[in-house]
Design a protein that fits this description.
single chain
């Protein structure tokens, strides 16, 4: 019996300890979860302290007359309190707080390394006290058991029949352990049942073992019995061992007649004891081999059953607990701990890359760690090993290995690698398949796609569109028709064994999977499962399967329809992920296609090339094109039509990535042999050449070429054919840059009418045409009207293309320019920053589109009073444009004008003059001597101003700005900001030259334009003082209305009327 004072001392120590311990434990756990470099001792304490808390809690609940030895218990509790308070002080001094400054966090991090020895001492003391408390409480439990026994038979002590494998090596996953604990706490009339479900290698058995260890410390379950249920024979062996051990412990010397007697003895003993019990049925992967598995467990409300299984049908047995991969922090800790490598910053970073590469799969991480340890290499070196000899790494089994399974009916367990455990699942799946060969072919084929979101529609499209018979189609085809339910049966069988994860669209009300880009039946593979399937077949067969995967993707892409209209943007992205994976497999497994293979593969590669181009992936498209070109040269010869077609495609992609000279060289080389090519090839060649001329500013040649292309196309194609509409659209672009406004805008309207009549208002060609029509309005300084068009077009583009697609970025760029002109500076700046970053990342810093975005961002900075930033951007744009296109290009010259104007405005007139002279001398298309004579400048550097015969200062700047004013007066509306700024710049030069008359005239013209702009700002773009021209518009659409695509009410054709617009066109866009 304990006196009241002693009882109070016990309670006080317990309360103080628990309060401090929970605080310290919480802080350490938070630190370990957020820091990848926490010392190992802190990870150990995060597990040890909660366990000690459980023991101390039990001391608080003891009755006074049950305390074994109060004189010894009080010092132990007092020692626990003392150590935990010391640990609290140490932890507070070294672990960072959320509010700590960066310097403080760094200092504390250094301290945490320095005090490790003190923390280790505290940990050792706590471990000693924990052992003492455990012994004390075990004595009390035995005493309570003896006191409460009734009848002639005394109750047995606790019985734990659990494997000892992997003790003290478990890492992390506390959330799953907590879920298991919550699921298995008995309550109600029946045992609680939980099922750990996951693919092989996810750590289900390790989790179950760790849960058992926790419960052995907690002492809630009096009986914990582990049963291997991988097969009926394994289950019988486990029960036999458990029964014999239980009988020996109880002094029962009986013999057992058979396996049923073993099971019956254990059940009867546990049910009679009426104490909490826990059964673990491990590796219950083949439920079909057992009739009534729950009949082997006791029937009482005090118990719990925990299954581990990779077979999804076992979820029906109880509460399913899916086991995902480990978190990155836990995975990294597991790798470092098992590999025994030093915890340097470099090793931590490389370890994270390793575990990401392994898909956070515990068994694969354990194997890889053993490989690292055995070869004494670093995580960085392991990555190179893995990439070059992946199969050997993942089949590596160390001499000391915890993971064992019974294989092929053997009595003894065999060490198994991560590949080995999946092989067991595969063999089980094939045994239940009605066509093993076809099932294996299907599973192998899917491994050459991306491991995520593999869709039924891919295989269905291949079946319906391919002329060749594919081996796996026999699984899904009934009476020559695709059977969705047969497909579902096969995939479900593979998913049941956790070889893949299967998703079926439920078609619930309010759920739109198509909007989410999800197929009716889609599934995913763990990345290592995909690798395993690829590597388990001979190397020669991998090339065959790459070819089959390419053919499936070809048919799937073709099934999306014209312009991929049958796909949402997410479906398009998913398809692209499979294309990327298949092309990666080609580079890895294909040394070179044979003639027989190439006949089928070439068409697939051409489709994939176009898919890359349409997605703005020009570098990848060029690589595919060169791959095709190489095989065409080797297998078909340079004189073959196929080789010429491939060269034309290469010219296309060179043009798209801004390599205009390369593209022109290819076409120039091909032109002498055009007579040998088909009419379609000739037309494509001429069209490409016209595009190049346009980009190089050779507008007259571009117009002539486009007109030739249209004449050729109209021989065999209707005026409404998409190819014809595209050519007319390109011709309209040239007209805009030539100042031929009537023809350009008339073409835009006619093209949009044609798209509308065909029901293709959301076609990308129609949306791009709308963007260009908006650009025409912007050039006329009708910015609000242009904004309506831009908003409508960009809304359509965003539904079809990713934010990184070059077409989407170009549309956003011209809209940002329009925002700038509307004075919406903040919106425009945010857009420019994002667009410049994306263009630079996707197309490169020197692509013409990237430089165009930089140039327009510079103009915004210039106009918003940030000349330093503007100059930096102007110089970047000028350097890129001068290198790529030279000063003969209008865009390069436009950049030189803007930078010269900025330097002049900042009083750096000599620098401005030097730059202007360099630009004028670099422009060979225009004669500088002609300009000098026209401006009454006798020769370069000589002047004749009619007054004193001396030199006129800053004449290069005068010539540069005079050219700019003449161009802008020809191409831009009177009120356009660029035109007004050019006139003001020229007036400033006249002022510097003391030419008052010219200065006044030029400045007056600029002021008049600004006044006109202010007067018409509300209406945004009346005709003003300029000469008016006519453009055909639909009768029901006023000039200020949004452009086509039209609403359904406008579907009928009506006679056109004439509207008026100012006579100027879009500028040569900077």
């Amino acid at each position: 019996m304990v006196d009241p004072v002693t009882a109070l001392a016990i309670a006080g120590n317990v309360s103080q300890f628990l309060e401090t311990a929970y605080k310290v434990s919480s802080r350490i756990k938070l630190y370990c979860s957020k820091s990848g470099s926490a010392p190992a001792v802190f990870h150990d304490l995060s597990v040890q302290i909660p366990m000690l808390c459980y023991l101390v809690e039990d001391c608080r609940s003891l009755k006074a007359d049950n305390v074994a030895d109060p004189d010894n218990l009080i010092p132990v509790l007092d020692g626990c309190r003392r150590v935990i308070e010391s640990l609290d002080r140490l932890v507070s001094s070294v672990l960072p707080d959320a509010d700590d400054a960066l310097g403080t966090k760094v200092l504390k991090g250094v301290k945490s390394v320095n005090i490790q020895n003190k923390v280790i001492e505290c940990k050792a003391e706590l471990e000693s006290y924990k052992s003492t408390l455990t012994l004390h409480l075990n004595i009390i439990t035995a005493r309570q058991t003896n006191n409460s026994s009734s009848g002639t038979q005394a109750l047995l002590p606790s019985f734990h029949h659990v494997p000892t494998t992997g003790r003290s090596r478990f890492v992390g996953r506390g959330d799953i352990l907590q879920t298991i604990s919550q699921s298995l706490r008995p309550g109600g009339r029946d045992p609680r049942i939980a099922v750990l479900l996951g693919m092989g290698g996810q750590g289900k058995t390790s989790l179950a073992l760790e849960y058992c260890r926790h419960e052995m410390v907690n002492r809630y379950f009096r009986f914990i019995i582990w049963i291997d249920s991988s097969s009926p024979a394994a289950l019988e062996r486990s029960f036999a061992q458990a029964a014999e051990n239980l009988a020996a412990m109880s002094g029962d010397k009986r013999t057992f007649a058979n396996s049923k007697a073993h099971i019956s003895f254990i059940k009867t003993t546990i049910e009679t004891a009426e104490s909490p019990w826990l059964f673990i049925l491990d590796n219950f992967d083949n439920p079909g081999s057992f009739k009534k598995i729950l009949d082997v467990t006791p029937h009482s409300a005090f118990g719990a059953v925990l299954f581990t299984s990779r077979h999804n049908s076992c979820a029906l047995l109880g509460t399913p607990i899916p086991i995902p991969g480990m978190s990155q922090s836990d995975s990294t800790e597991l790798l470092l701990q098992r590999a025994g490598v030093e915890r340097t910053i470099s090793n931590l970073e490389q370890a994270r890359k390793v575990v990401d590469m392994l898909g956070h799969l515990p068994l694969a991480i354990d194997q890889s760690a053993a490989y690292i340890r055995s070869r004494r290499i670093s995580p960085a070196e392991f990555i190179e090993h893995y990439q070059k000899r992946r199969e050997k790494v993942l089949k590596h089994i160390p001499n000391v290995w915890d993971y064992h399974r019974i294989v092929d009916g053997q009595e003894d367990e065999t060490p198994v690698s991560v590949f080995g455990t999946w092989e067991l699942s595969l063999q089980q799946a094939l045994e239940h398949s009605h066509d093993e060969e076809a099932t294996m072919d299907f599973l192998t084929t899917m491994a050459f796609f991306n491991n995520l979101d593999i869709r039924m529609e891919m295989f269905k499209a291949a079946f319906e569109r391919s002329k060749a018979t594919l081996d796996w189609t026999s699984l899904f085809v009934i009476d020559d028709e695709w059977d969705e339910f047969e497909y579902q049966d096969v995939v479900t069988a593979l998913a049941d064994l956790s070889l893949l994860q299967y998703r079926v669209s439920q078609g619930l009300s309010g759920e739109d999977d198509r909007e989410e880009g999800l197929g009716l039946h889609s599934f995913s593979l763990h990345p290592l499962v995909r690798d395993w399937i690829q590597l388990r077949i001979p190397a020669a067969e991998r090339q065959v399967y790459v070819g089959r995967a390419l053919e499936i993707l070809r048919r799937y892409i073709e099934s999306a329809g014209n312009d991929y209209q049958k796909w949402t943007l997410k479906e398009r992205r998913a398809a692209m992920s499979h294309v990327d994976a298949c092309i990666e497999a080609q580079s890895k497994f294909v040394r070179g296609w044979t003639t027989a293979e190439y006949d089928h593969v070439r068409d697939a590669l051409v489709v994939i090339y176009k898919f890359y181009v349409d997605d703005g992936r020009y570098s990848e498209a060029e690589a595919i094109c060169k791959h095709i070109l190489e095989h065409d040269r080797r297998l078909r010869g340079e004189s073959s039509p196929a080789f010429v077609d491939s060269e034309i495609r290469l010219a296309d992609v060179c043009f798209l990535r801004g390599a205009y000279n390369e593209a022109e060289n290819i076409i120039t080389r091909l032109r002498p042999d055009m007579d040998k090519c088909s009419a379609q090839t000739n037309t494509s060649l001429l069209k490409n050449l016209a595009k190049i001329y346009f980009k190089q500013g050779r507008y007259d040649e571009a117009v002539s070429q486009y007109q030739d292309v249209l004449a050729r196309q109209e021989i065999s194609l209707s005026k409404e054919h998409l190819d014809v509409l595209d050519t007319r659209h390109l011709l309209a672009q040239v007209y805009r840059n030539q100042g031929r406004h009537v023809e350009a805008m008339g073409l835009y309207v006619a093209i949009l009418d044609a798209y509308h009549a065909a029901g293709l208002d959301d076609h990308l060609g129609a949306l791009q045409c709308t963007v260009d029509l908006a650009g025409a309005y912007r050039a006329l300084a009708q910015y609000s009207l242009a904004a309506e068009h831009y908003d409508r077009a960009i809304a359509g583009v965003s539904l079809r293309l990713s934010a990184d697609h070059p077409m989407a970025l170009s549309a956003r760029l011209v809209r940002a320019i329009n925002l700038r002109e509307l004075g919406r500076v903040n919106e425009a700046e945010d857009a420019f920053r994002d667009i410049v970053e994306r263009f630079g990342r996707i197309l490169g810093p020197f692509h013409p589109d990237t430089l165009r975005a930089i140039m327009n961002f510079a103009i915004l900075c210039d106009r918003s009073g940030r000349p330093g930033r503007a100059e930096e951007l102007y110089r970047a744009a000028l350097a890129g444009r001068e290198k790529a296109m030279g000063f003969d290009n209008q865009y390069t010259m436009r950049t030189a004008e803007r930078l010269t104007s900025l330097l002049w405005a900042r009083g750096r007139c000599d620098e401005a003059e030097t730059l202007a002279l360099r630009a004028l001398r670099g422009c060979r298309k225009t004669s500088l001597e002609d300009d000098l004579r026209a401006l009454d400048i006798g020769g370069e550097g000589q002047v004749d101003d009619g007054r004193d015969g001396g030199r006129r200062p800053y004449w290069p700047v005068e010539v540069l700005f005079t050219r700019a004013v003449e161009r802008d007066r020809r191409l831009l509306g009177e009120t356009h900001t660029d035109r007004v700024e050019a006139e003001r710049s020229l007036a400033a030069v006249y002022a510097k030259q003391d030419r008052g008359v010219e200065e006044t005239a030029t400045a007056t013209a600029a002021a008049a334009a600004e006044e006109l702009d202010a007067g018409g700002a509300e209406a945004d773009g009346g005709s003003g003082a300029g000469k008016s021209v006519l453009v055909v518009v639909s009768e029901r659409r006023k000039l200020s209305d949004p452009p086509p695509p039209y609403s359904p009410a406008e579907s009928s054709k009506t006679a056109p009327v004439m509207g008026t617009i100012p006579s100027s066109t879009d500028q040569a866009l900077p």
